[in-house]
Specification:
alpha+beta, globular, TATA-Binding Protein, 5 strands, single chain
């Protein structure tokens, strides 16, 4: 699954906001979840997510004008991909503001 979240910010601002609010990501997962973040480069945040009995790995890439989250959903969650992508867009906008 690939979700693009457009914005009008420079990447330094986006990076600072994501770093300062990364502890809030797990709070936005329905039923709660644990999220561990790492920054292997200035423009990529990696996340290990444990939620709904699943362990997922996601990448968040900072691009000019947008943040792109990429995650491989397991078959058990693929049927709710539209709901997940909508929630990611909504919560992503909140993290960037």
């Amino acid at each position: 699954m690939r979700v693009a979240i457009p914005h009008n910010l420079d990447n330094d601002t986006v990076r600072n906001r994501l770093k300062s609010k990364s502890h809030e990501i797990g709070d936005s997962i329905p039923g709660g979840g644990a999220v561990r973040t790492m920054w292997p480069s200035d423009d990529r945040m990696e996340m290990d997510i444990s939620a709904m009995g699943q362990n997922l790995h996601a990448n968040v890439d900072l691009e000019p004008g947008q943040v792109v989250l990429t995650v491989d959903l397991p078959p058990a969650l693929s049927f709710i991909e539209p709901m997940i992508s909508g929630a990611i867009r909504q919560q992503g906008q909140k993290l960037l503001t």
